[in-house]
Amino acid sequence: MSSGALTTPPVVAPPRPWTFPASTTTSTRAGTPVHVFDRPGQYVATVRVTIALPLFAEPRELEGVATIMSRTLDEGTELHSANEFAAALERHGAAYGVDVSSDALHVEISVPVSQLAPAVKLLAEAVTRPAFNAADVGRHVTIRLGEINQERANAGYRARETFAAHLFDPSTRRSRPTAGTPDTIRRLTNAEVARFYRDNVGPARAQILFAGDATGVDVAGIVDDAFGDWTAQAGPALETPEPLYVVGDRIVLVDRPGSVQSQLLIGCPGPDRREDIWGAAAVANHVVGGTITSRVDTVLREEKGYTYGTRSSFTAARKGGTFSLGGAVRTEVTGAAITDALRILREARDGLTDKEVGESKDNLIRTAPLRYEQADSIAQQVGSNIAAGVPLDFADTYLAQIAATTAESATEAYRRYVGTNGLLVIVVGEAKEVRDQLTGLGDVTELS
Amino acid sequence: MPLTYPLVEQTLDNGLRVVVSIDRAVPIVAVNLWYDVGSRHEPPGLTGFAHLFEHLMFQGSRNVKSGEHFALLESAGASLNASTFFDRTNYFESLPSGGLDLALWLEADRMGYLLDAVNQENLDNQRDVVKEEKRQSYDNRPYGDSYERLVRLAFPQNHPYAHMTIGSMEDLDAASVEDVHAFFRKYYGPNNAVLSIVGDVDEEEAFQAAKRYFGHLPAIPQPPPAPDGTIGPLQGVARDDVVEDVPSDLVTMMFRLPVDGTPELDAAALALDVLAAGQSGRLNRRLVRDEQIAQSVSGGALPLIGGVSFGTLTGIASDGVDLQKVEDALLEEVEKLAADGITEDELATVQAQAERDWLEQLASCAGRADEISHHTLLFGDPNRINTRIDQLRAVTVEQVQQAATQWIRAEGRVQVTYRKNTDATESGNA
Questions:
Q1: How confident is the model at residue A2 (pLDDT cuts 50, 70, 90)?
Q2: CB contact under 8 A, B318 and A12
Q3: Residue B424's pLDDT is what?
Q4: Does B94 contact chain A (CB < 8 Å)?
Q5: What pLDDT is attached to residue A28?
Q6: What whole-number distance in Å separates Cα of residue A133 and Cα of residue A135?
């Protein structure tokens, strides 16, 4: 190479073939499957317990009980007080976390592999022997009520909550917040939390994942030692019903006094993983709003400077998905930004180009090894696959669907959902500044 | 026992420091550049400039059209971004290893020839985008301006850490294309940066590629050092009490801490961890679990290289609890730490947590590349990533108490509180 700058980009060598990391599966004495993803070099392991727990199993008047239950698993067990449990776990260098989605409860630890055995013992203690003392449950009810205040003050959260409330029919659990509302949270007692636990958490509903460097470590033995005696009687999970959607073009304006931006969320129903267009839809999304070079951000951010950035996505639970485009725009240009966004979303129905689709496919396929490089991202992906009812290595199916996508099939997948039965527009912002800007854009419902 | 990540370092003739670390676990490579320019380098009137470049660097350069930087890398399967901090800016991408040359070419083109593409039009546009970023990240969220208020109180006017990276919108509005060009010419060149390459590549080929794409770029005149920010612990108390529409009352206090890279800073950081880290920290146990006067507590150290660091403690009051109670309890725990020190068990716990954090930070090629650049640029030694845990493990309970006694004190702090507007006739927010 001579001493000047190369004026054209160097050629990119084709990537080495990649498939989702393989696992070996055993089971505990209690019959719980254990999936071990051995990833040499990942010195911090993630151990995740995924428990099938469809949220519609919550009694309507006690919604949020699954969340309070999940948050109090480690707040006192039959063997340790809340303070003792936290001290013991953290002394091993472990971090502990829980997550409740519409289909599953996930309880996990991240821990240096050298401390695996004692940390997994503690994880099992939280999952299998929680105490649910009245004081601990009461404290978490209070904390959840404070958290709801914080959520209401957060424009992005308000937009998501309002979106769900207006996209799903009220008979569908997902129309309401996963973690409950003040009127359902306030009445929760430790007796109800314990009953919900007994009815829904047990070895027959669980799967246990390990991802990390298993060199010289008997992971299956350590997990069996901790979880093998688990004898809870919770029966099989009920199958989640299909969600019901509300369709049609409409705008919901949520007044948030003092806002200096309008938080937007625009969307409609979308596919779930049972549909073989799942991969093609992801490609279409990438073209339209999935990245900074997408059609939407090219106009809203790069040409017009209305926003720090927007993003769209297709997301799905076990049954039923959504498409949404979200971002924050300057208050004065709210109407203009919505007009542009709706135009771009609708025009995409007319067809995505070969070039756009080819570039998006390249990106989605080639970024896969990055996405699953770390132990915790493998455990997270596999946990959500289990929750969604698809195979552990569903990432490979998804990538094959993407590889087979054409401009025509991406457009077709997009057209099947986006704009077909209308688009819901949520605006969270200063209503007195925004109201007039929405005139002519559609039917507006205003909320405070 | 030190970690054993392999590290090989070379300096090109133009002064660019290059560090290569091989990892064959996954067929990807991480490319990471740290420039020795952050908000602490910005003179009065030019605040926000380092961060503005974080935007302009994606708008094209001599051989790269606007939008092409993202488009080329995304097609190659890259995840990419940049960030600005008090001490530095970084630019980075991870992608399948066959894209190494592309990544280096793009980074070199903007290091050498960015200004060909910086004009009034994209300056205006990216200034608008930065304003939206500020609205989104600072202005449109509760407590969003707390750090701005805290650093203003904790450091003298014009101290390098007295302003945030986002800068002042007035400074950005006043910036001409010539100002922006001059700032770039001053700081952006091979001898003011570190390049790290981590992943599934051949070591010799990686160095060759670095030379191929960066070797011809001329060194820039030695940039002026950031102003010396050396300053001791805070003396006295300064407060900023805000009343506005917040969801819950909140108190956050800031302490000056020792400079990064010293056992004193590690000790001070571990002291704050004993108070605020995890579920077993003293503050969570007392304020959240036992007394239930706070919904949540948090805190920790922010290590900085320019003569001083800082750390914070934050508490959000439970509904109906007077925020003063939370403040009093925080200060009581602060003073108890200085007076009585910590136990061996507490130290072992926060060390174990810090060790896991560090291992997780190094668990991806991207995270490792970022720390290699960090330790090479700010401390001149990439191998510190391998000895970091030993440094943390070497801290004693005596050192923690000593650091707390000197730096983390009730009478040496600044503090911001946010209280709900309880006036029933809530005034409009014009």
A1: very low
A2: no
A3: 46
A4: yes
A5: 98
A6: 6
End-to-end CA distance of chain B: 59
| Tokens coding A24 | 């070996």
B140–A261: do the CB atoms touch at under 8 Å?
yes
Q: Tell me how far apart the alpha carbons of residues A202 and A205 are, in angstroms, rounded to a whole number.
A: 6
Question: Which residue, A448, A437, A414, A446, is CA-closest to A325?
Answer: A414
**Rounded CA separation A136/A72 (Å):** 7
Backbone angles phi, psi at A386, to 5 degrees: -60, -45
Q: With contact defined as beta carbons under 8 Å apart, do A422 and A302 qualify?
A: no
Say if strands B193-199 and B17-22 run parallel, antiparallel, or are unpaired: parallel
Query: Which pairing describes strands A206-212 and A444-447: parallel, antiparallel, or unpaired?
Result: unpaired
Q: Are A316 and A273 in contact (CB under 8 A)?
A: yes
B248 to A136, A141, A145: CA distances (angstroms): 22, 16, 11
Rounded distance between C-alpha atoms, residue B114 and residue B54, angstroms: 12
d(CA B334, CA B299): 12
Residue of B77, B288, B353 lying closest to A362 (CB–CB): B77
Q: What is the C-alpha separation between A337 and B20, in angstroms, rounded?
A: 45
B62, A5: Cβ pair inside 8 Å?
A: yes
Q: pLDDT tens digit string along B6-20?
A: 999 999 999 999 999
3-state secondary structure of A257: coil
- Angle at B22 (CA atoms; ends B17, B23), nearest 5 degrees: 140
**Which residue among A10, A154, A293 sits closest to B74, beta carbon to beta carbon?**
A293
pLDDT digits (tens, 9 = 90+) for A132-161: 999 999 999 999 999 999 999 999 999 999
Answer yes or no: is the ipTM higher than 0.90.
yes
Nearest to A48 by CA among A37, A64, A40: A37
Q: What is the pLDDT of residue B421?
A: 86
Q: Give the up-direction half-sphere exposure of residue B230: CA atoms within 13 A in the CB hemisphere.
A: 1
Mutate to test the interface with B, among A158, A286, A293 (most CBs of B within 10 A): A293
Helix, strand or coil, per DSSP, at residue B207:
helix
* E strand segments, B279-410: 294-302, 309-317
For residues B424 and B14, what is the distance between their CA atoms, to the nearest angstrom? 66
A residues 349-368 lying closer than 8 A (beta carbon) to B = 359, 362-363, 365-367
pLDDT band of residue B33 (cuts 50, 70, 90) is very high
Q: Which one-letter amino acid corresponds to residue B92? A: F
* Angular region, A9: left φ>0, alpha ψ -120 to 50, beta rest: beta
**Residue A311: C-alpha distances to residues A294, A368, A413 (Å):** 9, 19, 19
Tell me which amino acid residue B189 is.
G
Contact B98 A363 (CB under 8 A): no
> What does the pLDDT average to over B229-248?
96
State the angle between helix axes of A134-153 and A155-167 in degrees (0 to 180), rounded to the nearest 10: 100
CA–CA distance, B199 with B61 (Å, rounded to integer): 27
**DSSP characters over B79-95:** EEEEEE-SS-EEEEEEE
The Cα B205–Cα B398 span in angstroms is 48
Domains defined for chain A, CATH in brackets: 24-227 (3.30.830.10), 250-447 (3.30.830.10)
On whether the CB atoms of residues B125 and A302 are closer than 8 A, the answer is yes
**Structure-block tokens of residue B304:** 């900085």
Distance CA B211, CA B200 (A): 18
Instruction: Please state, in angstroms and rounded to a whole number, the distance separating the CA atoms of residues B190 and B205.
Output: 19
> How far away is chain B from the Cα of A245, in angstroms, using its nearest Cα?
31
Q: What is the pLDDT of residues A50-72, one digit of tens each?
A: 999 999 999 999 999 999 999 99
Over residues A341-366, the pLDDT tens digits come to: 999 999 999 999 999 999 999 999 99
From chain A, the residues in CB contact with B318 under 8 A are 142, 146
